């Protein structure tokens, strides 16, 4: 089991039990101090059992739990914000289907380390002194209506969109929303819980989506993960684009329209965001990797816009305090409607390479500390980020959601980024023996 502010993830009945789920949910409920909670899940087969276990933990505190069934993580975050109620999302996000877990939401935002420590404590549910709580079926969230109001019904009239829903929670909203905005939509993998490709669209080649985009002459293709917060776009030529490119494109659209002067992004996000911000007279602030860290920095600096390049995750604090794939997609689609396909070529682009190494966390952290002694000018706020010649960098850090160490590199060319990632991955392996 892996636990971080990004969520708790594991394999049910292997390293995560239903008793664990009930304990974590009860601890969160006690920490949140509310008498009402929102609950939702993605489309994994273990979702119903874990949802009931989480509801049991919350109800042990006498709370009323409103169950939304299958909805996306951004939709639940939005509902938590709108209703001012804490929420529990049953999901393992972009991890493969055998995994599942819990994501906790307070005030429409992810939790911090203090709340995570309380969630992981041993106390668990209360069995006496409380009137039993109740479980109620909730109405659909207002997420679709809110986005239609934000972007305008019919505002994207005629834009052709291919959507690979990946068998996940985005099935609940993506096609109806795009249709209400006037898009011509072709959808695939639109049966809940039927996973015909990798759950993580970043890790999958998205062969079917790319084929449909080219065959049907679509302006854009959208590939979602299981809980609908991660997105990969395919451009009009059928090319799968990186998350960093997608975030840069979405931020370009938002900076143009909002005139915002502050942007907060994670340490591993492309420097193209810095180039873009300079164009619009904005300043970039960088946080530790992780959505909650970005949101925390946004609040600290008073920035409306933020994101994480690795997942293409745009965060618009005026709407949601989480990476919102649908909002990012609509920001790009609206600009495609306005500027045409030339919008794809309007932003700076760097090349990234990301390598994942299976190295035990404790050993990896020790190796990173040893490497840091050779690079005195490196940024050690989160792992080790090295700034290299010719506008390139390398970041080495343990993942917060998987038992791996990530070596990320960025450079002007794909060849240089690949060489840098391979060089430092090899160096890390040598130090980890």
Care to describe what's here?
The chain has 13 helices and 20 strands. The chain has 433 residues and is an alpha/beta fold. The chain folds into four domains: 136 residues, Alpha-D-Glucose-1,6-Bisphosphate, Chain A, domain 3; 92 residues, Alpha-D-Glucose-1,6-Bisphosphate, subunit A, domain 3 (Alpha-D-Glucose-1,6-Bisphosphate, Chain A, domain 3), CATH 3.40.120; 103 residues, Alpha-D-Glucose-1,6-Bisphosphate, subunit A, domain 3 (Alpha-D-Glucose-1,6-Bisphosphate, Chain A, domain 3, 3-Layer(aba) Sandwich), CATH 3.40.120.10; 82 residues, 2-Layer Sandwich (TATA-Binding Protein). The strands form four sheets. Strands 1, 2, 3, 4, 5, 6, 7 and 8 form an eight-stranded mixed beta sheet that branches. It has a four-stranded mixed beta sheet with strand order 10-9-11-12, sandwiched between helices. A four-stranded mixed beta sheet has the order 14-13-15-16, with helices on both faces. The two termini are 24 Å apart.
């Amino acid at each position: 089991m892996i636990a971080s502010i990004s969520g708790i993830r594991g394999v049910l009945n292997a390293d995560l039990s239903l008793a664990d789920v009930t304990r974590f949910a009860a601890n969160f409920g006690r920490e949140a101090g509310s008498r009402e909670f929102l609950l939702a899940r993605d489309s994994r087969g273990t979702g119903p059992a874990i949802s009931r276990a989480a509801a049991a933990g919350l109800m042990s505190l006498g709370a009323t739990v409103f169950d939304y069934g299958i909805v996306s993580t951004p939709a639940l975050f939005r509902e938590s914000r709108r209703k001012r109620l804490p929420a529990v999302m049953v999901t393992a996000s972009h991890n493969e289907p055998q995994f599942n877990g819990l994501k906790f939401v307070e005030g429409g935002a992810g939790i911090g380390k203090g709340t995570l420590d309380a969630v992981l404590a041993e106390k668990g549910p209360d069995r006496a002194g409380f009137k039993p709580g109740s479980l109620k079926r909730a109405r659909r969230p207002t997420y679709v209506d809110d986005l239609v109001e934000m972007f305008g019904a019919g505002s994207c009239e005629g834009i052709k969109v291919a959507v690979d829903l990946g068998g996940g929670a985005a099935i609940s909203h993506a096609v109806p929303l795009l249709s209400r905005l006037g898009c011509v939509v072709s959808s695939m993998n639109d049966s809940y819980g039927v996973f015909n490709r990798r759950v993580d669209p970043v890790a999958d080649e998205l062969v079917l989506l790319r084929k449909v985009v080219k065959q049907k002459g679509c302006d854009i293709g959208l590939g979602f993960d299981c809980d609908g917060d991660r997105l990969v776009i395919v451009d009009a030529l059928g090319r799968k684009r990186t998350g960093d490119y997608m975030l840069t494109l979405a931020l370009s659209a938002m900076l143009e329209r909002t005139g915002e002067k502050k942007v907060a992004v994670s340490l591993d996000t492309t420097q193209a965001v810095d180039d873009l911000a300079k164009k619009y007279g904005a300043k970039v602030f960088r946080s530790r990797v992780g959505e909650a860290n970005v949101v925390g920095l946004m609040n600290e600096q008073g920035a409306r816009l933020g994101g994480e390049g690795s997942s293409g995750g745009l965060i618009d604090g005026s709407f949601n305090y989480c990476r919102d794939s649908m909002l990012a997609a609509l920001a790009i689609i609206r600009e495609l409607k306005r500027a045409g396909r030339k919008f794809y070529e309007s932003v700076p682009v760097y090349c990234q390479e990301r390598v994942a190494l299976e190295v035990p966390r404790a050993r990896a952290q020790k190796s990173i500390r040893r490497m840091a002694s050779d690079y005195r000018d490196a940024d050690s706020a989160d792992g080790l980020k090295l700034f290299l010649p010719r506008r390139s960098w390398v970041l080495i850090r343990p993942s917060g959601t998987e038992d791996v160490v990530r070596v990320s590199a960025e450079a002007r060319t794909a060849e240089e980024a690949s060489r840098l990632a391979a060089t430092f991955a090899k160096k890390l392996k040598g130090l980890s023996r």
